[in-house]
C-alpha cells in the first residue's frame, strides 16, 4: 500500500471511530525536508478525498489541467496556521477513490524529492496527467471484466 493510501486509511479510521470532529474535513498535514507541504483530507460526510499541495505563489486556475473526476482550486488552510497558498485537488462524486489516490501518490512522490520548489508542481503535472490516464484505463479494464 502506498504512503498516500495509508494516510487516507488512517483518516478514514479516525472518522469511523467517531472522534467527535466538528469540521467538515478530517486532515493530516505532511511537510517534506524541501519545505513543500501536502494536506491529505477526507470529507467526513461524503468520504470523498482531497489533497492540498503547497505552492510558493498563487497561480491562475486556467493553468491547471481539466481532469475527469477531480476539481482543482486555490485554497488556504488557516487551521494549520500557515498563510501559504495551496492547490486543492478534490475527488468528485461518481469517481473512483483508488484512482484519485494513485494520482495524489504520484504527485506526492515527485514533490517529496524535488529540489526546485518554485516550479515543482508544474514540473510534475505532465507525469500526473499521464498516470491519471493510465489509472483510468486500468479502472475501465477492471470494470469491463
Describe the overall structure.
The chain is an alpha+beta fold and 145 residues long. It contains 4 helices and 5 strands, in the order αβββββααα. The protein has a 5-stranded antiparallel sheet. Strand 2 (37-43) and strand 3 (49-54) form a beta hairpin. It is globular. It starts with a helix and ends with a helix.
- Widest sheet: strand order? 1-2-3-5-4
Quick check: average pLDDT? Answer: 80
Biggest β-sheet: count, sense, barrel? 5 strands, antiparallel
Shape category? globular
Overall strand count: 5
* Helix-strand makeup class: alpha+beta
> Percent range for helical residues?
25-40%
Structurally, the number of domains stands at: 1
Strand proportion, as a percent range, falls in 15-25%
Total count of helical runs of at least 4 residues = 4
Gap from first CA to last CA: 23 Å
Helix and strand sequence: HEEEEEHHH
The radius of gyration is 15 Å
Summarize the topology:
Elements: H1 3-16, E1 25-31, E2 37-43, E3 49-54, E4 70-75, E5 86-91, H2 97-113, H3 120-123, H4 125-144
Antiparallel strand pairs: 1-2, 2-3, 3-5, 4-5
Helix pairs in contact: 1-2, 2-4
Features:
5 strands, 145 residues, 38% helix, alpha+beta
Task: Provide a quick synopsis of the model.
A 5-stranded antiparallel β-sheet has the order 1-2-3-5-4. The chain has helices at residues 3-16, 97-113, 120-123, 125-144; strands at residues 25-31, 37-43, 49-54, 70-75, 86-91. The chain is of the alpha+beta class and 145 residues long.
